[in-house]
Write a structure and sequence with these properties.
alpha/beta, 3 helices, Rossmann fold, single chain, four-stranded parallel beta sheet
C-alpha cells in the first residue's frame, strides 16, 4: 500500500485533478469538499499526508494546521501558500 493522502478542497475540479495526479504517482488518495468531513476522516483513519486548501467558505486551513499540531502530530499537513489551484490569496 502507498502513502495515504487526504485532500480537502471546496473545488470539485481541484479534488479530481489531485486524485488523478496523486493516484498515478502511487498515493492512496481520499478526497472531500467538506472540511467537517475531512476532520472526521482524520479522526477515523490513518493518513500520512493531508493537502488542505488555504481558504474555504466554512473553514480556514490554518485552523486545520493548528488542530493538526494538537492532535495529529505524525501527519504531514500541507497548506499551499497560494491555494491548491494556484490562485493568489
Amino acid at each position: 500500500m502507498g502513502v495515504k493522502m487526504l485532500v480537502i478542497d471546496d473545488d470539485d475540479d481541484v479534488l479530481e485533478s489531485c486524485r488523478v495526479i496523486f493516484t498515478d504517482e502511487g498515493y492512496d488518495v481520499v478526497t472531500t469538499n467538506s472540511p467537517d468531513q475531512g476532520l472526521r476522516l482524520l479522526s477515523d483513519s490513518n493518513f500520512d499526508v493531508v493537502l488542505c486548501d488555504w481558504k474555504m467558505p466554512q473553514f480556514d486551513g490554518v485552523d486545520g494546521a493548528s488542530r493538526k499540531a494538537d492532535h495529529w502530530k505524525n501527519i504531514c499537513y500541507i497548506l499551499p501558500n497560494y491555494g491548491i489551484c494556484g490562485h493568489r490569496i
